[in-house]
Amino acid sequence: MKFSIYRYNPEKDSKPYMQDYEVVLQSTDRMLLDAILRIKALDDSLSLRKSCREGVCGSDGMNINGRNGLACITPLAGLTEPVVLRPLPGLPVIRDLIVDMSQFFKQYQSVKPYLVTHSPAPQKERHQSPQDREELDGLYECILCACCSTACPSFWWNPDKFLGPAALLQAYRFIADTRDESTRERLDDLEDPYRLFRCHTIMSCAEVCPKGLNPTAAIGKIKAEMVKRMV
Amino acid sequence: MVKRIVVGAHYGLRDWLVQRITALIMALYTLLAVLVVLIKHPQGASAWRGLLQVPVVRIATFVFVLSLCWHAWVGIRDILMDYVKPVGWRLFGEVAVILVLLSEVLWAAEILWG
């Protein structure tokens, strides 16, 4: 199978280039990651992140034939050759397919992705009804692979000011949580022209999410909460 | 001056809402305008002038122009925010856009009532 892979080692290369590979696959190779590991066995200078190899850790996010996704859960069968692999767009490249995710995590941390409470802690735990818990479905499953944020043109333009779909999905996850007691502060924090409102409903995020989540819908719900509060 | 990312101006929601509401107003006006033209068939300058003499048409048209300019302001500022990074140039661009849009509103008022 033929591959064309983005290569860049800032210590040696003056600029990035695409390198072609041809690799013989075994019958057990089903996912793109299997093939990349075959290539790595041929050329150990190729760098990438990977860990769980089953779509849970979110390490091997990359741009596959122009579309962001996780190599470990992308079936080889559906890919057209040569398979063009590039690092996630819009983030600084450290080496080959490895990007610097600092900006992405900074935005994630800025939404306070944890319960903020003011009332005294109960004896055992804070309860939630099954119905209230249901609202968190489609939000908590995010694995922070950054496929969505790096597919978002608004995030490419303003990665320092616009939170990006992943962080906004998490922002709504805590706005939606009935146990959280700082909804007002959370909405205040997002009511500015950059952090949330750079989103122009392009919907690339929902299109590429390897977990099938819909950040655009979550952003819409945050807007609805804001309007509800305003009028 | 320290180099720090500053965010938190509180007009994100307002402008987003304004853009949606003005879009609705413009869509409604366009629909009504097409209907009026289809029904009335104004031929020649005097017929158009007569149509715009009706107070309701005048006011609706002016509300449409206001909506258009306000809508355009939010949209053009979005573009300036994305592409013009130096604060001084952006402010210059925003003021220029405001002046152009404001003069267009006044011009429309002059045409409608002048």
How would you sum up this structure, described in words?
The complex is a heterodimer of chains A (231) and B (114). Chain A has 231 residues and is an alpha+beta fold. Chain A has 2 domains: 2-99, Ubiquitin-like (UB roll) (Roll); 102-230, Fumarate Reductase Iron-sulfur Protein, Chain B, domain 2. Chain A is built from 8 helices and 7 strands, in the order ββαβββββααααααα. Chain A has a 5-stranded mixed β-sheet, with no helix packed on it. In chain A, a hairpin with a 2-residue loop joins β6 (93-95) and β7 (98-99). In chain A, α2 runs parallel beside α5 (165-175) and α5 (165-175) crosses α8. The longest helix of chain A has 16 residues, at 215-230. The radius of gyration of chain A is 20 Å and the shape is elongated. The mean pLDDT of chain A is 95. With 114 residues, chain B is an all-alpha fold. Chain B has one domain (12-113): Up-down Bundle (3 helical TM bundles of succinate and fumarate reductases), CATH 1.20.1300. The longest helix of chain B is centred in the first third of the chain and has 29 residues, at 12-40. Chain A binds chain B through residues 154, 157-158, 160-161, 189-198, 200, 223, 226-227, 230, and chain B through 5, 7-13, 15-17, 78, 81-83.
Major pleated sheet of chain B: none
CATH superfamily of chain B: Fumarate reductase/succinate dehydrogenase, transmembrane subunit
Which CATH top level class of chain B fits? Answer: Mainly Alpha
Quaternary state of this entry equals heterodimer
Q: Quick check: average pLDDT of chain A?
A: 95
CATH fold annotation of chain B = 3 helical TM bundles of succinate and fumarate reductases
The overall pLDDT average of chain B reads 93
How many domains make up the coordinates of chain B?
1
Give the total of domains of chain A.
Answer: 2
SSE pattern of chain B, N- to C-terminal: HHHH
Radius of gyration of chain A: 20 Å
Question: What is the CATH C level class of the largest domain in chain A, in words?
Answer: Mainly Alpha
